[in-house]
Each structure stands twice: as structure tokens, then as C-alpha cells.
Please model this.
Amino acid sequence: MSTLQEKLTQLQQKGSQDIKAASDLKQLNDIRVKLLGKKGPITEVLRGMRDLTKEERPAVGSFANKVRDALAEVVDEKKAELEQAKIAQQLATETIDVTLPGDQPKVGAHHVISQVIEQLEDTFLGMGFKVVYGYEVEEEKYNFEMLNMPKDHPARDMQDTFYITKDVLMRTHMSPDEARELEKHDFSQGPLKMVSPGRVYRRDTDDATHSHQFFQMEGQYIGKNVTMADLKGTLEFAIRQIFGEEREIRFRPSYFPFTEPSVEVDISCFKCNGKGCDVCKHTGWIEVLGAGMTHPNVLKAAGVDPEVYGGFAFGLGIDRFAMLKYGIDDIRNFYQNDVRFLTQFEKRG
Amino acid sequence: MKVSYNWLKDYIDLDVTPEELANKITLTGIEVEDTFHPDAGLKKIVVGYVVSTKPHPNSDHLQLCQVDLGADPVQIVCGAPNVAAGQKVIVALPGSRIANNEKIKKGKMRGEVSNGMICALQEIGFSTDIAPQAYADGIYVLPADAKVGAPVYPYLGMDDAILDLAITPNRADAQSMRGVAYEVGAVYAKKPHFDVAKPVETAKPVTDVLQASVAAEKDAPSYNLRVIENVKIQPSPLWLQIRLWNAGIRPINNVVDVTNYVMLDYGQPMHAFDYDKIGSKEILVRRATDGEKLTTLDGNEHELIDDDIVISNGTKAINLAGVMGGLDSEITNETTTVVLEAAIFDPMHIRKSAQRYNLRSEASSRFEKGINKGTVLTALDHAASLIADFSDGDVLAGILSPTKIAPTATVVEVSQERINHVLGMQISTAEITKIFKRLAFGVSETNGQFKVSVPTHRWDISIPADLIEEVARLYGYDKMPTTLPASASTPGILTPQQRRVRQMTQLLEASGLNQAISYALTTSEKASQFTLTPAETTSVAWPMTVDHAVLRMNLVSGLLDDLAYNIARKQVNVALYEQGRVFLKQDAKMTRPEEVEYVAGAISGDWQAKTWNQVAKPVDFYQIKGIVTALLDQFNLKATYRVTTTRTEMHPGRTADIYVGDQLVGFVGQIHPQVEKAYRIKPTYVFQLNLTALLAIDKQAVVYQAISKYPVITRDIALLVASDVTNQAITDAIFEKGGAHLKDVTLFDSYTGANIEKGKKSLAYTLTYQNPSATLTDDEVNAAFAKVEKILVEKIGAVIR
Model:
């Protein structure tokens, strides 16, 4: 081994030690320049090769290059290490309390009545029904007369209805829309399938369970082959969307002027699953809907032949649905718009 | 209708409990709201025999009674004025429970031992309205044959169960025990058995003492009278009194009680007149004359109108037909001759009279909803026979029937195919026949075609749909399958407008507003405030309160009410919006007001609440305007905002009308401080838009534009202008002379204060130019910009800085 090689080996050892001892990037750079720069010892060694024989030169040259590469590698490693440390130190100073509250965008709540309406609309849209909004101020003809409630029918009593004139009133239910749609519908284009949610009015004194204004939804399906079993199936499908897959429904005979047969529709209690609790008054069942097969007189009044066409209609109270679903005990909550009430229902539908 | 389980068992053989019966009836026909046991909660109440009484030494009204309870007599202190030796009485033993779960203990009253309590009916649960008048202020006296020491309940009918039926208007047939028996018979496939009674008539014909006529047959299509002489008024037998009080009717005397009993039994209301007080030998059914006066049994005098049907003595009204008797011809203890009436009156007139004079009664309710035409005379005979029995009276020969209806069955036809088609079931002809027979209907069937003869007790049935309902409910809705209609598919989609409204509500909520739903009926004043365009009000004819009497013509006043409600409850930072109808009558002659969809918002208090890293920021005009602009952007509409000082409820310096083109679509601004004060709210900013109008001009259809390859060039301009110059005027002017390539003008600074002379303000805008089809040169932009500077100087009076 030549003396040059020995010198290089020493340089490598000493250099490595110096590099590893560097405490910051500047110091490291100084060491790098001193060791590997143009005026550094390795360059000097390489310059000293002039004095070597032609035979010796390649071996020494190659050795010197190795040493230089090795040292450069050590510098790189050290540099990475120092940079890492520097970033770590910087990040440490940037640390914040991530448990402080975030700047939340203000998001308003969708009214719970709207949520229930939209959920019902979506359920029936999915079954091919259309959504119709009628008039809140109606003609007596559509509110009563065409629905098999002729003049002097007890349901037309003054005390239940806000009349505006003798022939005009605040709609007391959503059935007028059904009569209007029946009258308009072109059955050559297929069956009539519609739901109609909206605001209705009754002459009632406002208290926890009564409101002079509330919301209802009615629906009807009139076609050539629509059966009462279809009514049961349709309502069961809808009820399960809203109150859960496990719900059962049952029909009880009832009376409405515009349907025959008429039924009340009960659902198995969603709170106790039919075992009996306060919600279902210990019967296991909750009354949620009125329904039936459209009365022939209603079809006739709208110019539809009851011998050819028939079908079902149903109606429900949106407020009652919302009260049942969320356990709300005072109907006035819906119309007082206390923000502490409204914001409980921020999540849409 | 309160149905006695024990009475029902007289008519039909039942082997189910009252609760099972109630459940079954509810599921097959008529809802039973409650099943009530009169003895529920009572304990240790027995029959006692009062052996002797003597005055309490320390009281002027108490008695010391020695009462036999089956062993040695015990002493009970009693304060009832009617207690006497020899009576069988109701005794609550020590340790017993009486009404309202009250416990009776052995005790001392003013120094004397009392081993229990002698009870009045009210003390064991009878309502004061029902306990017989004779015992209203004292203890009740049981029949002499009551067994001493035995429980008292069977003697008073308290071992019965009462089913409370909620009867729908179509099932008025169940407003009678016989009707309910038919129904229960149909449910359980059992045949009811009824007793009827014919009176034994004397030789004297009724026509000797009375004549009857009906002026208009339509008013009283069936009118029938019997006369009973030599009547002795006294209490009815206890079994009959029990039936009345268990049905919620107070026993009065043998004549009145029989009329009520027969009404409950047959559903046929009856009326009894005191013959001697009629004042003539004639009964005439006619309309009242306008202003004719009648004092009814309740002692109230009514002024009648010619819509009322009355019973008259030929000259004056003595009874408001079907509603209430007259006081003058009332049955009293002195009555000896009774005229008994069984009739059918026109339901509509009865309903209106009962309503008009606020005299709804068991009788009027039955006349309104219908009467079994087949039992009018049966009921009259039954009643006459019972009165004769209970009063030793003599029934005169014959019935006066100036009008009469021949009862006929109604024949309705329906096919098996139709039944199954409507119900979506497969019910056999045999099964259907069986159901009609259970209902006691006559039925014949050929090839699936049914001919059904409906007896008079089911007058609600007249069309095939009615028969289909009977089959469905008695076959059982629980057996009905669940299917989905097999019709052609239909698209179930919202209309574009419906979808658009849903999107709008999402935008408003994402902007921080809570959706409110307010009352659409409000006060006359609030209905007329904040109107976008003038219109007439619409009022309800007969409001419940002035607060909800007039239909709203704006949404803002409702939102302000909501704000006030919140602020009164210490919720001061409130942001609300509402989407709903307003009701506008363009002229008073319109039948219905126009219903227009509006959307409105109201914000009060801090828009940004103070937090650990944010300062509180009260709401201002530009926040709510920003929301409005975002809303209109969603409709892709370019709106202009014009200063308005004429909206009287709005702040004149902080309100803008909103126009799309030349169409007024809404306004935005601050509520006038005086209006804020009236509503008791803090500074509040509102907007209101005509949603129907926006939906009509909705420019939603998107036209794609390729993103330009050519760069934009911007120029900034700073202006000094008079402080009343609006941004709108400046931007309008800039666009007027902006040239074809001016794309956008953005205000980036507005300044008043130091270095700006008073009455002036400094504004700075960035103008953005772009040519979509070529690169703009500086020269082109400079030329365009120079024109803008010129017009600003000339038209706006701006100093370019």
C-alpha cells in the first residue's frame, strides 16, 4: 500500500468522525467544503498523483474516488439527519391545541314538519306517485260536495270549518286535491297515482293536542285493477320506510264519507314492538292513518265511471306522524318556531 | 253509546268476557273506546240493615245507627237526613275502599265509635247527574229483599261491564241495544232473540180523546200517538233504573224512564206529554212561525223560526219536535193521562234546530242519524205496555197515525266477482252467503250473483260498495293479503319547480337560516304589513280569535312574531326563513284569493357569535343581502337593487327593492325601528321574495361556455364621489361605456374618514376585460378604460384618484 493510500484512509476515518460530530447544517457544510472541496485534502491527494508511476495511478485514483464517494455519502446521511431534526424542532414550535373548538359554518335546520313531508313524498315518488299541492282556500264544492258530503252533511258544520264566504272556505283536509286531480286526469294515459301534502285548517282552540292549523297528506291510486289488498300492501310498504322494517299493519273498519269500505290503519307500536307501552296506550297498536276504497259517488262526481275505474285513498296527519316519531307532546311547538326546538332536527330527513 | 254487557246477554248468548267482546267488536265493526266495570276499585261494601237510630249526643245532625251486617249489630255514625230504622243500606266496612280509592277505617266521630260508613250512591262512584233525585242529598235505600251482609254490587247493577262504543255516522243502527245485538250476532254468528210487548187495550178508542195531524208529511213521515189513562206516577222498578243509570241516564219516574228505556232498546226516541196540560184535544205537527215562543223542559225560552218543526196543540207550540219537550206539558207527579209519541222527523231539520238552540240530546242525535223504520210502532207498543204495567194505567184502543211508513227491506245486488275484484281476495260464494246470513240479511245467489235483502235495522246499506264492506269486515281484514298494484308503471318524479324549491331550502339552511312554519291566519294589521304589492285582505267569517282571523299577505310579520317569541325566551341570536303561501285578493270581487308562494328571511342579534377566536358580529344589511344574492344566483337570475324609502314598515335608509329586469320580485332591508319596538324585537334584517315569480322566470337552463384560452387584463380605478352616489349608479355607468370586452366590475375598497373631505367617499374598483376569441392588446383596453373614466367624471361627477 502506497503512502497516498494510507493518507487517504486516514482522511476517510478522520473525515467521517468530523462529519458525524457536526451539530448543525452550517457546520456540516463547512466540513464538507473543507474535506471534499477543490482545496480539500482529497483533491490535494489526487493532485499528488502526478508523482506516481503510470501503473500505480489507476489503483490510487480509484481508491481516492471511493473515499470521496464514501465521505459524500456520510455527509448526505448526516444532512438528512440534521434536516429531520430541524423540521422536528420547527414542528414542535408550531404545535396547537387540537381540542379547541373548530370554526363551524352556521347551518340552519330543516323544519321537522318539512322533513316528514319530504320523507313521505320520497317514499311515494319511489312507488311512481306524483306530488300535488292544491289550494289552501278552497271552494265548498271540492272540499265537501264532490267528496260525497252533500249540503247539510254533519261534517260540514260551521263549528268545524273556517268559512270565508258561503261557498269558499279554508280547506279542512287534503281531499279537495284528490277531487281536482280526479276531474282532470286522463285515464287513457294510465292510472292516477298522487299524494298531496299541505296545510289544513279547523275551527279549534289551540292547545297541546289541537291546532287551528296543521298538516295532512292524502293520496290516491285510481285505475282499472286496484284492490283493497293493494291498499294494504302500499301502506305497509310506506309505513315500513318511515317507522322501520319490522312494522306490521292492521285494518279496522271505520267510516269516511268518501270511501267505502273505510278503515283505520294501525301499526304495531314502534316503541314496544307490540308488547304494550305508553305510546300505544298498552294496546300494542297505534292508529296512524285513515283509508279506504274510493266511494263510487266521489268517482261519479268527478266524471269517472265507477264501473270501470276504482281504487284507494288514504290520509294521515303529518303533525301526528312527527309527534309519534319524535315523542313531541305539544303540537304548538311546530308553529311557535322556538330555535331550541327547531335546531334539534338539524339533520335532514 | 254505553252498552251494558248484562243487558246484551238478554238478547244474545255470549260466552266471552267483556274485554274479549270489546276487542272483537273493535276489529270487525265498531270501535270500543273503553270497557268499564262499575265496581272496579271498590272493596268490602255490603248490604246493612238499620236496626235502630238515635241522635248523636254531641251533634245536632248526626245519628247513631245500630246496623245489622249479618252478625251482632254494630254502631255506625251517619249524617244523612234520610237514614231511618228498617232501611236496607249500603255499608262500607272498616278496611273497605269506596269511590276515588278512598279507604274507610274504623274510627270515632265526636266521641262515638263508627264501624264503617253508610253510603250515598255518589260515594260508591255514581255521578251526581245520574243518581236518582230522591236520593240526591242522602243515603241510598236498597230493596227490602237485599241479603244482609252480602256484597252490594249486584243489587245496583254494578257487577255489569259497560262497553263504550264510538259510533261512526254510518252505524247509527248501533245506537240501540237491539242494533248492537244484531252486530254482535253477526260477529259471532249467533242469532239474537228479542222480546216484544203488546199493550192490553181498553174498549175506549183513542179518537174519543185526541185528534192528530201532520201539516207536511216530509217533516214527520211517521207520526204515531197512543194515550194511556189512569196513570200513577211513581219510581220505576229497580231493574229498569239500573239499565238507565248504567247507560248514563238518570231515572226520573215510571213514564219518563220507559221512554228512555225504549229509546235505548230500539233506538227510537219517545216523548210523553201530560194530556191534561196540552190545552186542547188536538195535536198538530207543523212548522213554527217566526218569533213563536216556546219554553223547553230545561226552563229556557226560545224564539223559534219557521225552519223549526214543532208539535202544537192546534194553536201554540208545545214541543220542539225531536229535540226537547215543552215545560208546560211535562210529565209531573200529578200526571194521570199520558200521550206517548213515537215518530220519525226530518233529520236535517232536527240537526239544525238542536244546533240553533244548543239542545243536542240523546233523542236529537238519533233523529239526526236515522231511525229504524221497522220498529217505530213496535217501540210505541212496547213503551205503552211497560207504562201500563208500571203505573196501573189503561192503554186506549188504537194508535193515532196521521203519517206512517210501511217498512220495506232494501234490495241490493252484488256479484262475487265484484266483491273479490275490489277486495283483492278469493272469497267463495258459500262464505259470502254465510256472512249475509249472519247479518240477518235475506240472500239468494245464482252463478255468483247475490240478491241481498237488507232489513230496516241496517238503513246505512244501499249500494254494492256497502255490501262489499260488510263482507270484508266480517270475513276479516286480517285475512286480507298484502299486494302491490299491477298497473303500468308511472314516473315518480318531482316537477322542476318542486325540485327547485327543495334546493332553495337547502341553500338557505346552508346559509345558516332555520326553517320556520308560522300561522297563516293572523291579525288584520299583521296580515297587511310588509306587502310586496297592494291587495285586499281575506278574512274568515267566524274566527276563533282575532289573532287568527285574516289570511297573511306577507311572510315577514309571522317571522317577526317568531323572533319575538324567541327573544322573550332569551334566545336573542335568531336567523329564520319561511317558505309558504300568501293570499292576495287583487280586487274584492274575486271568489278565492290568489295563492302565491313567497320566501322570506329574518335575522336578529349576532350573525357571528363571540367565540374563543372570533369577535361577535351583529347582523348587518350586507349579510342578508348576500344570502338573497346567493338565492337569486341559484335561480341564475341577475337582480338589481333599487333604493326605496316608501316601505313604511322598513328602515328608509337601509332598504332596497329587488328587481329582475323591470319586475319587482322582493325587498331586503332593516325593519323600521318603530316597528321593531312594536314587535318587541331587537334590530332585525329581513328579506321577502315572490317565489312564484322567481320560479316563472327561472333561468336555470345552463348554457355551457368554453373556458377562454385568452388571458384577462385588469385595470383598477379609484374614485372620489359624493357620498350619496350609489354603487349601482357607478357600476351601471361603467358597464354603459365598458365596451364589448368588459367582463366584470368588482368593488374592492370603500372608504370615508381621514384624508377624505366631508360629504365624499372613496371607492375603488377592479375592471376585468377579456376577449373570448383573441388576445386583447393594452391599446384596446386603454381605449375602453378611457371611455369609462370619461363617463364617470361626466355622469357621476367622480374625481379619478
About this structure: The radius of gyration of chain A is 43 Å.
